[in-house]
Amino acid sequence: MSVSFDERDITRAIIKYASQDLIDLTDVDVVIVGAGPSGLTAGYYLSKKGFKTLILERRLSLGGGIGGGGMLFHRIVVAKNAKDILDEIGCKYDIYDENISLLVTSTSELMIKLGFSAINNGAKLLFGISVEDVIYRDNPSRITGVVTQWSAVQLSGLHVDPLMIKARAVIDATGHDAEIISIVAKKIKELGMSVPGEKSMYASKGEEVLVEKTGKIIDGLYATGMAVAAYYNLPRMGPIFSSMLLSGKRVAEIVSSDLSK
Length: 261
Ligand code: 48H
What we know:
The chain is α/β, with parallel strands linked by helices. The chain has helices at 7-24, 37-48, 83-89, 107-120, 151-156, 179-187, 203-213, 226-232, 242-259, and strands spanning 27-33, 53-57, 75-79, 94-97, 100-106, 124-127, 129-137, 142-150, 163-172, 215-218, 221-223.
């Protein structure tokens, strides 16, 4: 079969559809910053509930810290309390020991199934975009969107002004550095916020309190995953990912309830 296109058609097709997508995504229900385990899980549940959900990821790949496994070994563990989430997304696992509450899964399977599930429900995931600031309104104080830049521009060191996206809720799923909360704490001084960072390892406690503390930071801004640990100085837990999945599910429930008021 002969083909009829030239290089100009390739360019036009990409720019036309990408521009349409980007214009549509300037106003969404929820922006999730970071496509790690907590962000992808939040994206899965929010899009499942029908919210217009955009996940922005600075890298050109998804999964965040899942890919690194435990010290690069390609297996990670998930406590049994997050078994339902693994079942729901069709992620296979082994039972480590009947008397110990740990399931063992593989890094590639978890990251791909989480990403697949979120996208399959309608979440949009864009790579190579970094969130460098938030949009806020005062009186009453509220986060109303994010300020974005191509990651490649950030890496280049060039001064290029950003573009903005409006959102009814922004979720910081940026991991250990809690980047979005840190930006808010640094720039909106009247909020009197600070980000102390996570505490040293105490896996079972870290798993539990992180899910409990997951939720709203200020109006319009929420936290999930290790960003919660950084904001509340909670213990880290190492390569066990149940609290990341449960935190993503919990933040989705909280955001969903707030947006439905
Ligand atoms: C766009 C950004 C930006 C930005 C960062 O690190 P992650 O995997 O985050 P979590 O919280 O979902 O999962 C944490 C887990 O992977 C982990 O590290 C654990 C459990 N550690 C325990 C321990 O003891 O060490 O993913 C965050 C994602 C990454 O893909 C970043 O590239 C991305 O967010 N990101 N994307 N704009 N400003 N900042």
